[in-house]
UniProtKB/TrEMBL annotation:
Belongs to the oxygen-dependent FAD-linked oxidoreductase family. The lineage of its organism: Bacteria, Bacillati, Actinomycetota, Actinomycetes, Micromonosporales. The keyword Oxidoreductase applies. It comes from Pilimelia terevasa. PROSITE patterns: FAD_PCMH, OX2_COVAL_FAD. This is L-gulonolactone oxidase. Keywords: Ascorbate biosynthesis, Oxidoreductase. One of its GO terms (biological process) is L-ascorbic acid biosynthetic process.
Length: 441
């Protein structure tokens, strides 16, 4: 029986497409786009559904790329790997590891497809590292005319920039070629700091570790700082079990979130009890196993990319807002950093960036936490993560991206009829070739 309802990983967004296709080759993707064009149907590509908004839903053709997977080739001399778009990041990293190679930086989620991660501006952490788009050397793209083309830095500079973070609006990515580095190990260390001390020196802290991040529980005044740096030392014995501390923490947050439905004020006490059961400890392991950890519990998340120099101010402004709500999320606020990017729709475009991420259980009462935080982060120049929860519209977003018009010109040229648009892309980008919105704050 054909499948009828597609759902996101979190289960909070779904759609019933007219056609749900699962291609296994580029030729099948080309054919699907060509047929949709002849029939006047919109097309949306889909991966593992790790977006927390309506990025994918369509009533037209849903191209599910999760069966279009695998490494096409590894060029050790050039330091490159070419991979099919539906391949999960974890599978790519494991394949590279077998070749003695690695990606220089990735985010915490191994289950996301490479195309989904690239299309939404996904990133890891580290002031020397731009988002995932900065590691891309070439892509293959099937456009609305049913043609596949290779796009690289030697091509049209506007197209090369636009295609690396495009929300699936320029066409369907089929393969991505990434730059690789030699295999390396990372060592992880933890320490606590006061909230005030951390936020006062956040810009300086950002450069202290190759891949630093921090976690803050808003009812407390301490921040857990996570330093992750390359190491020549051996992997820690049974290191694989150490990374599961993060997964156990996720399970604890899910359980506390359910118990917290009885009263948001109980969350801090319950969270402290669960956290004491599996304290994290330092360890060293292969880079991709330190960057990522299993995330078994489903949740909702929102993230904004801020100018690095105001990220500490934003956290200080966020503290009283979250405390006044009378309810808490069991998940900590996650702070990461990154280099600026030259991709027009990258949330890190043109500036060193501080990323502030808030996660909540999938409960209506917890969503108010995200709404309250969004106002604060937006007021500090935040650009929302394209794949996470937010309420921003084109009227707000256009003014925050200096090369907004460049992207819109590329989009209008490649997809003049809006084949790859949906309700979400119309909300955040506007209809194809629509007049530029008035600039607002």
């Amino acid at each position: 029986m054909p499948r009828s309802t597609w759902r996101t990983w979190s289960g909070t967004v779904h759609c019933t497409p007219a056609q749900w296709l699962v291609p296994t080759s580029e030729d099948e993707i080309i054919e699907a786009v060509a047929v949709a064009g002849r029939n006047g149907l919109p097309v949306r590509p889909a991966g593992t559904g790790h977006s927390f908004n309506r990025l994918v839903p369509t009533g037209g053709v849903l191209l599910d790329l999760t069966a279009y997977t695998g490494v096409v080739g590894v060029d050790r001399a050039a330091g490159e790997v070419t991979v099919r778009a539906g391949t999960r990041i974890g599978a790519l990293c494991a394949a590279l590891d077998r070749h003695g190679l690695a990606l220089a930086n990735i985010g915490t989620l191994a289950y996301q497809t490479v195309a989904g991660a690239l299309s939404t501006g996904n990133h890891g952490t580290g002031l020397a590292h731009p988002p995932l788009s900065g590691q891309v050397r070439r892509v293959r793209l099937v456009t609305a005319d049913g043609r596949a083309r290779t796009v690289g830095p030697g091509d049209d500079p506007d197209l090369w920039g636009a295609v690396r973070t495009a929300l699936g609006t320029l066409g369907v990515l089929t393969t991505v070629t990434f730059a690789c580095v030699p295999q390396f190990r990372l060592g992880l260390r933890l320490r606590d700091e006061s909230f005030d001390g951390f936020t006062d020196r956040l810009s300086a802290w950002a450069g202290e570790s190759a891949h630093g991040s921090a976690n803050w529980l808003p009812w407390g005044d301490r921040v857990t700082v996570r330093s992750v740096d390359p190491t020549d030392g051996p992997a820690t014995p049974r290191a694989g079990w150490r990374r599961y501390a993060g997964a156990l923490d996720e399970v604890g947050c899910g359980l506390v979130g359910q118990a917290g439905r009885l009263g948001g004020g109980a969350v801090p006490r319950l969270a402290a009890g669960f956290g004491a059961l599996w304290p994290a400890s330092p360890y060293a392991d292969a880079s991709h196993r330190v960057f990522t950890f299993p995330q078994p519990v489903r949740f909702l998340a929102m993230e904004h990319a801020l100018p690095l120099e105001v990220t500490g101010d934003a956290l200080r402004a966020l503290r009283p807002v979250l405390r006044r709500l009378g309810t808490y999320s069991p998940y900590s606020v996650l702070v990461r950093v990154g280099a600026g990017d030259d991709v027009p729709l990258s949330p890190a475009y043109g500036r060193p960036t501080g990323y502030v991420n808030l996660t909540v259980p999938r409960q209506a009462g917890q969503i108010e936490i995200l709404r309250a935080a969004e106002h604060v982060l937006r007021a500090h120049g935040g650009r929302p993560h394209w794949g996470k929860a937010h309420t921003a519209t084109v009227e707000t977003l256009a003014a925050r991206y200096p090369r907004w018009r460049d992207f819109q010109r590329v989009r209008a040229h490649l997809d003049p009829a809006g084949m790859f648009a949906n309700e979400y892309t119309d909300r955040v980008l506007g209809p194809v070739a629509a007049p530029a919105p008035a600039v607002t704050g």
